[in-house]
Amino acid sequence: xxxxxxxxxxxxxxxxxxxxxxxxxxxxxxxxxxxxxxxxxxxxxxxxxxxxxxxxxxxxxxxxxxxxxxxxxxxxxxxxxxxxxxxxxxxxxxxxxxxxxxxxxxxxxxxxxxxxxxxxxxxxxxxxxxxxxxxxxxxxxx
Length: 142
What we know:
Layout: H1 2-6, H2 10-23, H3 28-40, H4 44-56, H5 63-75, H6 79-91, H7 98-111, H8 114-123, H9 125-128, H10 132-141
Helix pairs in contact: 3-4, 3-5, 4-5, 5-6, 5-7, 6-7, 7-8, 7-10
């Protein structure tokens, strides 16, 4: 799936997805890989369906799960949806991490949402010294 995502070979990824369903395969790693593959192949709607199916199928969502879907929405510049998933993550008592904030800062930079970026910057001050990438993204945003 990772190879399909990198090469944006959607048809191969879909075929693997169908085989996994037929064989009854499923774990968090598979769901994450499918979400990522669909996002990289510009199939965000399908990635979101996988995100929803994960909960329906009894798998706990993690920071990684939310980070993948937040990444997908942010890459499309979908501010409202990205922030909704971020808030849902927090409501689910899943702690946002450096990766989460990285995607949010990148979204603010690419969509010229400086006010939102400043607000996020305030929230992540304790994390900034721990992450070179956060520092770089903040510089880029400003």
